[in-house]
Amino acid sequence: MTQRYQDHCWRTAVKSVGKVVYHFYFQILDRHRQLKGYFQWDPFSTIEDS
Asked: Does pTM surpass 0.70?
């Protein structure tokens, strides 16, 4: 079973070189809204001088 969700997008302006880390926290529920688990994801972007 799938569930619809709203997609998200972020935009930013680069001001200097460096590394940026994002922190996402979310939970997974089954079709009866029973908790299946908590998760986190910490992706990063590295901005380099060209």
From this structure: no
Short-list 37, 47, 43, 4, CA closest to 23 = 43
DSSP string, 13-48: ---SSEEEE--EEEEEE-TT--EEEEEEE--EEEE-
**Tens digits of residue pLDDT in 4-15:** 777 777 787 888
> Residues 3-50: pLDDT tens digits?
677 777 778 788 889 998 888 888 888 888 899 999 998 988 898 987
Structure tokens at 20: 């940026």
Residues in the chain: 50
**Which residues are CB-contacts of 43 (< 8 A; sequence separation ≥ 6)?**
21, 22, 24
